Structures are given as C-alpha cells and as structure tokens.
Amino acid sequence: MDSSEIRDKWDARHAEAEGLGSQARVLADNLHLLPTAGKALDLACGRGANAILLAEAGLEVDAWDQSSVAIQRLSQAAEEAKLGINCSVRDVVSQPPAADSYDVIVVAHFLDRSLSGPISQALKTGGLLYYQTFTRARVSEAGPSNPAMRLADNELLHMFSALHPRIYREELLLGDTSQGWRDLAMLVAQKQLISQ
Ligand SMILES: C[S@@+](CC[C@H](N)C(=O)[O-])C[C@H]1O[C@@H](n2cnc3c(N)ncnc32)[C@H](O)[C@@H]1O
Fold it and tell me: How many CB atoms lie within 10 A of CB 56?
C-alpha cells in the first residue's frame, strides 16, 4: 500500500468507528506523573481520546494525525467539551516535531521506528514520553497482523535508550496468560534533568 492508500484506509476506519477511541492505559494509569502545566503532543492521535485526557489535565495540547477524518472528529469533540486542542492534519514521519518543543509526548498504537530520535529530541529537558503499542508476543488478534509493525522483546526500551525509563511494562507470554496486561508494551520515560 502506498501512503495515500494507507491514509484512505485510516480515513475509512475513523469514519466508521464510534466515539473517540479508548484512552491508553500508559497515560490513564499514570496521569499523576504529568506536570501541572506545559505543552503536550498526542502524536498519531487518531480520534484523540488521549489528547482530550491531556487537555483535561490542564496541558496545552497539539494533536496530529494524517487522517483528516480523525482530526475533524477530534476538533468537533474538543469544541463540544470546550477544550482548546490544536488539531492538525499532519504526516508525522515527513514532519516530525521540532527539537526541544514539548513537556509531554504521547504515542499510542503507532510505530514508526525512524521517529525514535526525533521524538526523544522533541522533549524538553525533564519532559516525559508516554508510549504504548503492540508487541509481537500476543494472546489475541488485536493490532496489526504484520510482525514488523509490532514491537520485539524490550524494543521500546532500546528505541528510547536516550531517555530514562520511569515505568516499563511488558509481560510477553509469561505465566498465566489469561491474566495480566498482554499484547502491549508500555513505557513512561523522562529526558533527564541535566543536574540529576
Ligand atoms: C491505531 S491508530 C491509533 C490512534 C490513537 N493513537 C489511539 O491510540 O487511539 C493509528 C493512527 O496513526 C495514524 N498514522 C499512521 N501513519 C501516520 C503518519 N505517517 N502521520 C500521521 N499519522 C499517522 C493513522 O491515521 C491512525 O489514526
């Protein structure tokens, strides 16, 4: 599929889907780590459940996705909720965030390995990355079927080795796979303060 076919596929999915999508647990379970003010980016935001959470937490939020349908739906939801989210149709691979521009970046269910450097650089000193996406080890059919679009064992830690991990969770197929948090890895990592 070329890039316009991928965009069309996502436009169709976002047009059919209900609501804003689900909040990523990496963010919803760790809201207490957020700063009380500052700039946040929901990168490849989809219909923007995480952007809404960030705005409700008092942050100034940018939300970017290549799908105009997703961005249109998020803009409408933000307006209805009276939340000032800066929503943009943007290809995040050809136009990644600028260096030193965000206090918080959230990436959920999206993987483009070429962005690990630009994302790390886009955080301000002390800034936080919240990242959650699918792993190759899986117990369900959720997520992409192409293994290249899923994380290898510990891959998020390697991709963001320039940052300091604060929370990491990946359970693979260990133990009783009917329990726990499966199919996904989550990372909260910080761009270290220079004096620490
Ligand atoms: C599985 S959805 C995840 C959406 C949202 N982050 C969530 O967790 O609900 C993946 C999103 O990535 C977007 N996407 C894929 N490639 C992109 C690119 N190059 N630039 C911007 N968005 C992209 C798609 O349009 C889609 O909305």
Answer: 12
- Which of 85, 93, 106 lies closest to 6, judged by CA? 93
Using most ligand atoms within 8 A of CB, pick from 1, 10, 107 the residue to mutate for ligand 1: 10
In a domain, 22, yes or no: yes
Give the CATH number of the domain where residue 167 resides: 3.40.50.150
Give the N- to C-terminal CA distance of the chain in Å, as an integer: 46
Ligand 1 atom with the shortest distance to the CA of 14? 27
> Strand 60-65 vs strand 86-89: parallel, antiparallel, or unpaired?
parallel
Across the chain, which has 196 residues, the per-10-residue mean pLDDT values are 91 96 97 98 98 98 98 98 97 98 98 98 98 98 97 98 98 97 98 72
Q: 52 in ligand 1 pocket by Cβ < 6 Å?
A: no
Q: Is 38 a member of any domain?
A: yes
pTM (two decimals): 0.97
